[in-house]
Write a structure and sequence with these properties.
64 residues, mainly alpha
């Protein structure tokens, strides 16, 4: 089985890691779209922090 190490040093199957990265990218796209198309008063302030954390995780997980 093809595996890689994540930040917690557990072996993670490469396909599972790719699926998680794709899901994080999709969630980030959805958050960005929501923030762009809804009035600011309808946006939960935590959404910005979640988007920032997702962006950082996606950047860190993308192959160089």
């Amino acid at each position: 089985m093809d595996t890689t190490k994540d930040s917690a040093t557990r072996a993670v199957p490469v396909r599972a890691q790719e699926a998680l990265l794709a899901a994080a990218e999709e969630a980030l796209d959805m958050l960005d779209s929501r923030r762009a198309h809804h009035p600011p008063e309808m946006i939960d302030p935590r959404e910005g922090r979640v988007a920032k954390a997702l962006r950082a995780a996606v950047r860190a997980a993308r192959p160089s």
